[in-house]
Target: histidine kinase
Amino acid sequence: MNMKGRLMWRFTLQLSIAGVVALLIVAAGILWITHRYAEISITKDFASAGMERLVESSKLTPEGIRFDPKLLEQVKANNGWLQSLDETGGVEQSYNAPKDVPLKYAPGELVAYWLGKSPFPYHLYLWVQEKHGRVYTVVYGVKNEIGPILNMVASQGRLDSHDQLYLPDEMAKRLQMLGGFVQLINRDGVELGSYNKPHNVTKLYNIDELVLRSIYNVRYGYLMDSIYERDTGRTWIVAIPNPGERTQSEGSSFPPEAKVLLIAVVAMFLALVLVFFLLSLWNAHRFGSPMLHMLAWLDLLAKGEYKEPTDRKGIPRSRRSQGGTRSRYRVFSDFLHSIERLTTTLLRDRELRLQNKNLREEWISGITHDLKTPLSSIKGYAHMLSEERYEWSAEEVRSFSQTMLEKSAHMDRLINDLAITYRISAGVQPPEGEVIELNSWLRRSIEQAASHPSFDTHRVSFVPWGEDITIKLYGPWLDRVVMNLTANALLHNPPETQLTVSVMIDGQEDGIFILFTDNGQGMDEQTAGRLFERYYRGTDSMSMTEGTGLGMAIAKDLVEAMGGQITIDTMPDQGTTVRLSWPRG
Model:
């Protein structure tokens, strides 16, 4: 997978994980809200919301039924009590039950208490459910605070001349302690008087308003009951806060449910912000650090420092100490490899530039020396011939002239060699070649090269191929190659060195080869590696005036310009073989 694919996969995976985490956070928030709403409902009205949950969470043990301890604590917090009855009406288990509560109920007795047909100091709530093959009857009771107060208000309460509602002191203190209030309304529902009433409780009741407040006490926060006086048409209303709940005034803008919702929304928002903040930090570390590292690397390259930035231990930042690429850098491996190759290339180019600079200085120094040496001879003989104090004989003048011609010819060859090398370096293609028969043509070229006055023709032998070989080459250039390779083998080896030139065809490599093999002193690896460099030679111009230091470089350039290759195989004291090769056809 390329870098683009890896980045797409990484970011897609991250966003998917972040989305899943966000959904989990929202789901956890919703579950928490649901749980808290259930607890609030149990706190406000245990009889409606808590009884079912109490039975469902119960467990049957050999000792009897066991209820959830947290729900039992809520029963106590609501000032209630709990009893579990068997099928005969006997109490099996009880919790927080007062002493005036029966330990066994007759069937009619329990129903009479529950429906309020018989006097009982508690409001009863029943829950009957089958579980584990048994029928459970759970009785939940709370103190009937509002009934006695309502009866006393209706019998002892009165309205004075200033429309102020009068209650006995004991009753007034009880109402204040419970946080309740009393209202007296006329036949039309208009308030005639009140006691301890909150300011936001309505002063006008219609039929549905009084019914709703009497039935849905959880919604309004108060238990409400009333007595209607048939003869006067007045109605006494008593209301006390729901058990286990702090008084919530009507129209309150911040009920418990809203508080729970606000806490959940804020918590979910902060959790999501934290998740995406951590994701951003992780991305900054996972992707930002490698990108900053690569930018720093490129900056070093721009400054000419061809190396990867390292840490305090000197280890490249993208590498582990034991080797290998760090995990956060792997997604950028393609780009890192490209920068690494660029670094290697720039470093190699810098080394080549330094090497070429040294070679150029060497070359210029050698060329200057080679030009000055014959030029000095020419200049010296010219001064001698122009000197008026001497009269030179004709034979001496011819000798001087011959030397001057030789030095001039050497300078001419040097200039021609320089011209050839730079033409080839500039990409000048050879003239149109001709089809030659290589055996016969090479024999003539070698005889011509060996006929030089400085060479011994017996030191050169030619071995042709067993059949005619035709190839298309440019003859003058090949002549120059043969001349240079022959001269190099004979001039830079001992006088007894033998040179053998052979032609062959290799069917496996499908090529035509010309081999120049001598049994001379050979070369070491460094000399062989620089043999084809311009102006690299084993002698100087003082020891051999014919040499220009460009012969082997010219031979290599000419062979490659004609589509061939030149290689060398040599070792010290084991001779040298120079191989020219061209593809067949």
Notes: Confidence is low (pLDDT under 50) at residues 246-252, 538-545. The first strand starts at residue 59 and ends at 61. The two ends are 43 Å apart (CA to CA).
